[in-house]
Specification:
341 residues, alpha/beta, 434 Repressor (Amino-terminal Domain), 12 strands, 45% helix
Length: 341
Amino acid sequence: MDRRITMQDVAAAAGVSPATASRALAGNSRVAPDLVRRVSEASIRLGYSANAMARALRTQRTDTIGVVVPAINNPYFPSAVEALEGVLSESGRSLILCDSHQDPAREASRIDLLINRMVDGLVVIPVSTSESAAALTCAALRVPVVQLDRYADAPGTDYVGSDNTAGILLLMNHLRYMGCTTFAYVGAHPTTSTAGERQAEFRALTAELQPGAPAHWELLGDFSMEWGRAAGRQLLSGGPLPDGIICGADVVAIGLLSALRDSGVRVPADVRVGSFDNISLSEISSPRLTSVRHPMDELAQETVRLLDERALDRSRPGRKSIFTPELLVRESSAGSTPPPH
């Protein structure tokens, strides 16, 4: 019997690494066109595509993982997808991406679609703590499922995320170190675990610091720039500003900075601002945004590890892996000479 053609054979024939060959065949836009052409020609010449299809039918494996995110237009989620793709490509696997558009019903249909496409497992960033649970629980009966960044109570699934309470504490301690004594929080309604944990920790930390704080110093909407701008206008119309503002996500903070700037409020001279996610825009916003960085590469590696572990033992209890975030101090909270942190 002829030896089965592998991704390593295709890579060797094209003169690239197996990871590059995998990315090229998966259509990754970051691979140079000439490399895509070389890898494609090598795969056709060796008959790799036909063998891959036959192998999937024989082994019931497709070497693909389905990924469902709540909003691809939020820059944080593409960064998670990119990290996952990098880890999967190291083992010759690829991913299929779906956007649930913040809709639990669409999320459920995309999960079902991916399972019917015979993906080997699912990575889902849930839309809702409560409304995503049923679809995730059902999916876990059919394929390995890992929830990333957010979680719903879905038996049979695993969860990988960042410590949101530690992130709020990092921001609060930093702002207090910079001299802030009054604080506002601008975030999303607690329909997701991330939104709920960040809001709850902010409330716990400020309960004794500012017991008589104005009600409008806690503003909840969604994770969007539009909400950040609207919240900024509400803060400005409500009287004196607090010393420090913590936002539940960078996209919210960037909208907030825009509203403050339009009204002539100086950041950080008049108010200091910090946020979550360390998206690429946080480094080029005006001023550059202090932000909590999630260890995305480590989160992606652990997600894939748990998927593979779950594939070997479908009956084990669900596991949670929580990673410690890091605070990146920039001008929005510390001016032009950020202190050590």
